Amino acid sequence: MAALQLYIPFSTGPCLSNCRFRSSPVRSSSERQALFNRIAPVYDNLNDLLSLGQHRIWKRMTVSWSGAKMGDSVLDLCCGSGDIAFLLSEKVESNGKVIGLDFSKEQLSVASSRQKLKSKACFMNIEWVEGDALDLPFSNGHFDAITMGYGLRNVVDKHTAMREILRVLKAGSRVSILDFNKSTNPVTSSFQELMIDNVVVPVASGFGLEEDYKYLKRSIKEFLTGEELEKLALDVGFSSARYYEIGGGLMGNLVATR
Ligand SMILES: C/C(=C\Cc1cc(O)c2ccccc2c1O)CCC[C@H](C)CCC[C@H](C)CCCC(C)C
Ligand SMILES: C[S@@+](CC[C@H](N)C(=O)[O-])C[C@H]1O[C@@H](n2cnc3c(N)ncnc32)[C@H](O)[C@@H]1O
């Protein structure tokens, strides 16, 4: 039987949440793009609520480990609604330049609205680019630092994403990648699953986004451990790679130097 794709009006992709006929998990790039478009209106508030504001600390650590400094030209990959790009902007100041890249129009629209509401002059140094992390529209060796928050786990081809990051980084520069930690400690991974099943998904279901947040647990299961992420970075050609567990082991950060 031919594959049946259901579309809901005004959505950018197939019907995934609240859809009785939903059959496959969020596998393709366009399904993931549709998911992030759908959750954009509530994404920031849910992150604050679900992490009790802790994600702000993890994002600050990510920026600090990227080595970004005043005057730098930096890239925030999979920038979503812009949290990390705004932090980078304060770091590189008005004579620096920040590019926030994402493939979700809705997330970028939230980022751009937030930028307009901010009063600090440095925030004018941010440019939002709609693009694909797997095919970056930048020349080789362009950036002094790159950050990526909760992005690598969500791209369909992690190897290509890391190769693209390496390509657009200057020699000696760093990428700092924040994400959920796929822990090898059974106590930590059970606690993470417990939080997702009993807090994250029930809260999200109150916004009609149960299926979209269920994807989170599957994506962590299919992600790489810290050791595997270090290996991936070295395999694609980074000269060094170090993984740090943070947030009590729930989160992790990969720092790799070109
Ligand atoms: C930062 C959070 C979520 C980001 C996020 C990432 C994704 O890839 C998604 C994909 C699809 C849908 C949504 C998302 C998404 O929102 C929130 C993280 C919340 C944690 C699961 C729970 C944190 C629990 C504690 C309150 C933290 C305690 C820390 C302490 C130091 C032990
Ligand atoms: C969980 S959000 C993280 C947003 C933000 N970095 C943060 O930390 O809050 C993941 C983001 O990755 C983006 N994304 C996933 N795959 C992508 C790809 N191939 N190219 C560009 N953006 C992508 C999604 O659109 C989404 O905005």
TrEMBL record:
EC number from the UniProt entry: 2.1.1.329
UniProt superkingdom: Eukaryota
Pfam families: Ubie_methyltran
GO MF terms, alphabetically ordered: 2-phytyl-1,4-naphthoquinone methyltransferase activity
Principal subcellular localization: plastid
Keyword tRNA-binding: no
Keywords, sorted A to Z: Chloroplast, Methyltransferase, Plastid, S-adenosyl-L-methionine, Transferase
InterPro entries reported in the protein's UniProt record: MenG (IPR032904), SAM-dependent_MTases_sf (IPR029063), UbiE/COQ5_MeTrFase (IPR004033), UbiE/COQ5_MeTrFase_CS (IPR023576)
Localization in the cell: Plastid, Chloroplast
Recorded GO CC terms: chloroplast
Single GO biological process annotation from the record: methylation
Catalytic activities: demethylphylloquinol + S-adenosyl-L-methionine = phylloquinol + S-adenosyl-L-homocysteine + H(+)
Family stated for the protein in its record: Belongs to the class I-like SAM-binding methyltransferase superfamily. MenG/UbiE family.
Record's function text: Involved in the biosynthesis of phylloquinone (vitamin K1). Methyltransferase required for the conversion of 2-phytyl-1,4-beta-naphthoquinol to phylloquinol.
Protein's name in the database: 2-phytyl-1,4-beta-naphthoquinone methyltransferase, chloroplastic
Annotated source species: Rubus argutus (Southern blackberry)
